[in-house]
Amino acid sequence: MKFITTLACALTLALATTAWATGTHLKTEKPLRIAQGVEVSLTDFLVPQKFTVFDFTSEYCPPCRGYTEPLLHLHQQRADVAVIKVDINRPEIHRIDWQSPVAQQYGMRSIPHFKVYGPKGDLLAEGDEARAMVDGWIAALPQ
C-alpha cells in the first residue's frame, strides 16, 4: 500500500510539474498542492500576472488546517491571487515532517509559512510579513 501511495503522489507531482513547465500553469479552481515532501523550485509554479501565495503546510499541523478554508476562499474570490500549497510531508511520515527534503530546502522551522510573489515573479514577502499580507487579503474578502 505504501508503494501505491508513493507512486500516486509521484505521478501527481510529475504531471503537475510537466503541465506547469510547459506553460500551461493557469490558475486552477482549487489551490494546487505540490511537493509531498520532495524538493521543489517555487519559481516553476508561479502563476503569470497573479500574486502567487506559497503556503508551506502539513495535514498534521492544526494551525495549517485553520488556513485551509480561508486560503481556498482567497484563491477562488480574488482573480489576481493564486494559492499553491507546498506539502512538506513525505507520504510515509504521519506527523509534521521537519526532516523532509522540501522542509530542509526552505529551512522550515514553523508552519504555516508563507511566501508571496508578485505578478512579475518577484518575491514580495515571506514569513511574518507574508502572513500579515495574506491575513489582510483574507480579512478584506466579502463575507
How would you sum up this structure, described in words?
The chain has helices at 2-21, 62-66, 68-77, 101-105, 128-139; strands at residues 32-34, 51-57, 81-87, 113-117, 123-126. A 5-stranded mixed sheet has the order 1-3-2-4-5, covered by helices on one side. It has one domain (2-139): Glutaredoxin (3-Layer(aba) Sandwich), CATH 3.40.30. By secondary structure, the protein is α/β, with parallel strands linked by helices. The protein is built from 5 helices and 5 strands, in the order αββααβαββα. 36% of the residues lie in helices and 18% in strands. The radius of gyration is 15 Å and the shape is globular. The longest helix is centred in the N-terminal third of the chain and has 20 residues, at 2-21.
CATH superfamily, please?
A: Glutaredoxin
Structural class: alpha/beta
- In this structure, how is the largest beta sheet organized? 5 strands, mixed
Read across the widest sheet, the strand sequence of neighbours is 1-3-2-4-5
What is the C-level CATH assignment? Answer: Alpha Beta
> Can you tell me the number of structural domains?
1
State the CATH architecture.
3-Layer(aba) Sandwich
Termini separation (Å)? 42 Å
State which percent range the strand residues make up.
15-25%
* Helix content bin: 25-40%
Question: Globular, elongated, flat, extended or rod-shaped: what is the shape?
Answer: globular
Overall strand count: 5
Cα Rg: 15 Å
Q: What is the chain-wise order of helices and strands?
A: HEEHHEHEEH
Poorly predicted regions are: 1-24
Tally of alpha and pi helices: 5
Q: What is the mean pLDDT?
A: 87
CATH topology: Glutaredoxin
